[in-house]
Amino acid sequence: MSSSPSPSARVGRLALVAVGLCWLAVLFDGLDMFIYGSVLPHMLAEKALGLTPDQAGDLGSYATFGMLVGALTAGTVADRIGRRKLMVACVALFSLASALCAMAGSVAVFGLGRTLAGIGLGGLLPTAISMVSDYAPRGRGALTIGMLMTAHHAGGILSAYVALWVVEPLGWRAAFWFCVLPLLFVPVLVRFLPESLSFLVAKGRTEEARELAGRYEVELPAAQAGKETAGDRRHALVSLFRGGEWTQTLLYWLASFGGLLLVYGVATWLPTLMRSEGYNLGSALTFVVLFNLGGIVGMLVAGRASDRFGAPRISAIWFALTAAGVFLLSVHMPLALTFTVVFLTGVFLNSAQTMIYATVSIRSRPENRATAVGWTSGMGRFGAVFGPWLGGQLLAANKGDWGFTAFALAGLSSMVFIGIAALRGSKRTASPGSEQELVGAH
After folding, report:
1. Surface-to-core class of residue 204, CB atoms within 10 Å of its CB (0-12 exposed, 13-18 middle, 19+ buried)
2. How far apart are CA 287 and CA 268, in angstroms?
3. Between 20 and 30 A from 260 (CA), which of 213, 336, 347, 377?
4. Under DSSP, is residue 153 helix (H, G, I), strand (E, B) or coil?
5. pLDDT value at residue 11
6. Could you tell me what percentage of the chain is helix, strand and coil, using 3-state DSSP and rounding each to the nearest 5?
7. What torsion do the CA atoms of 144, 147, 149, 151 make, to the nearest 10 degrees?
8. Do 129 and 148 form a contact (C-beta atoms < 8 A)?
């Protein structure tokens, strides 16, 4: 009797390779995103590069501004060169940018490195989501994308251990040299990552797409009836403000602004703020691990809760619980209780923002759903730039104890805005798979 694997098992493993490579790329994305916040307490304590708290906040915002640029340009660049090449370029860019940070002799050079890293980070995530959508097993697209997003938080966990095991004996620069290691992953991507099926179909390379789809035993994406024009995009954007829609659109944008201010503000400043509350560095970095473990759990729980109780309701409740958790972190509690609060805050915070996108998708018309979600995400990214800057300004003014309060207020504001928008919005039925594109949209 032959023990060779069946063809279906063989192609299943091939698809797993494609999805697994994307997962590893997003892991490195998360590592590079969170590493700055993890090593920031060391840099401030050593006054590395003459760094002050307000400059540290500015540097945190540089990376998120770069992510804004990367996310906005990723689609256009991917349409020209292909999603596979863009993923390779993004991994190479943020890896080389980390080398620039490691060698920086001034705050300006370090800031340039973080900005370039942000461009790579912002461009990689939506591209990886698109790739995973193409190669996910049949009927498992949303689940596979949800699993992909756990890699981002796994990277955050890895950043805490890098800071703990590498920075103590070798210094803060060693952490950024560690973030150059994903450059060794680039040849692996070049060799084994297939091109996006959607890109091949859009470019008319149908035979190549059909051969790949058959080899990986996945569905071939349908060709679009026609290419979207600039006029089509303008019409979809204008429709978001027609009649009474403008109020709801602005409410969604404000909710997204507060949500991403909270996500990136806490991600950047959590270890430093916890040290300012009297916890030692080891505990502060453990908080980063627990926060990201909570993020992984939250991504897997929020979707199921939203399917049962509705995304708008879950988003509002999640933001309320996030605000409560963030505010409690300003109170010095027993260490075990603080660990619990940090974990639960990670559960609710990281998925509350995703549920905003789900709400927008459910309440939008099919013809302008992509525009509505895209602009809600884009407006929210200004909050992602503002959050790290705000934390730095508060610390520079010796008001670090207000940091958690300010972030908690951002969570409450998002709760109010998404709650009002949900009450005002007319209920519409989401098209099948509409939430698939939302997971990890931030």
Report:
1. exposed
2. 12
3. 336
4. helix
5. 42
6. 85, 0, 15
7. -130
8. yes
SS3 of residue 303 by DSSP: helix
Average pLDDT across the chain, whole number: 80
- Compute the distance between CA of residue 314 and CA of residue 311 in angstroms, rounded to an integer: 5
> How far is residue 418 from each of residues 65, 386, 388, measured CA to CA in Å?
24, 20, 23
The torsion angle over the Cα atoms of residues 402, 405, 411 and 414, rounded to 10 degrees, is -70
For 263, the token pair is: 């996500």
Give the closest residue to 312 by CA, choosing from 327, 322, 302, 321: 302
Q: pTM of the prediction?
A: 0.78
- The more confidently predicted of residues 200 and 370 is 200
pLDDT digits (tens, 9 = 90+) for 255-275: 989 988 988 888 888 888 877
d(Cα 110, Cα 102) in Å, to the nearest integer? 8
Asked if 349 and 298 touch (Cβ cutoff 8 Å), the reply is: yes
Is residue 380 a contact partner of residue 70, using CB atoms and an 8 Å limit? no
Instruction: Tell me which amino acid residue 45 is.
Output: A
Question: Hey, what amino acid is at 68?
Answer: L
CA separation for the pair 341, 324 (Å, rounded): 9
Question: Helices 245-276 and 403-424 meet at what angle, rounded to 10?
Answer: 160
Q: How many CB atoms lie within 10 A of CB 377?
A: 24
Higher pLDDT, 432 or 91: 91
DSSP letter (8 states) at residue 2: -
- Region 210-214: mean pLDDT is 77
Q: Residue 100 above 90 pLDDT?
A: yes
